[in-house]
Amino acid sequence: QVQLVESGGGLVQAGGSLRLSCAASGHDFSIGTMDWYRQAPGKEREMLASITRSGITNYVVPRGGRFVISRDNAKSTAYLQISDLKPEDTAVYLCRAYEYGGVVPYWGTGTRVTVAS
Fold this sequence. Notes:
- The protein has strands at 3-7, 10-13, 18-25, 31-39, 46-51, 57-59, 67-72, 77-82, 91-99, 106-107, 111-116.
- The protein is mainly beta.
- It is globular, with a radius of gyration of 14 Å.
C-alpha cells in the first residue's frame, strides 16, 4: 500500500514562496507519475501539474511560471515550488501518485497553505 505524505505548507505573506513536498513510501514498485492538486475552501479540487518518472512535466493551467513541479526518484518525493504567493492560492495542496505501470491512484491527506494579504 502506497502512502503519500505532503509537507511544507503553512502561513505565508503574499509575495512569498513555498516548496511543498510529497514523499511516497510503502510501494512495492517504483513510483510513476506524481501529480499536485489543490482544493480551496468551497471549491472543487483542481489539478495543478504532473511529472512522470522520467521528469516530463505537464502544467494543467498556465500560471505564469509561479508553479514548478520537480521530483527526486531516489527519495520517491515530488516537489511543488510556488512563488509570488497570492491570497487566492490559499488551499489544501494534495499529492496523487501511481506505482510505475499501475492504474490505482494513491492520495495523500494534503498540506494546508494559507496566504495572508
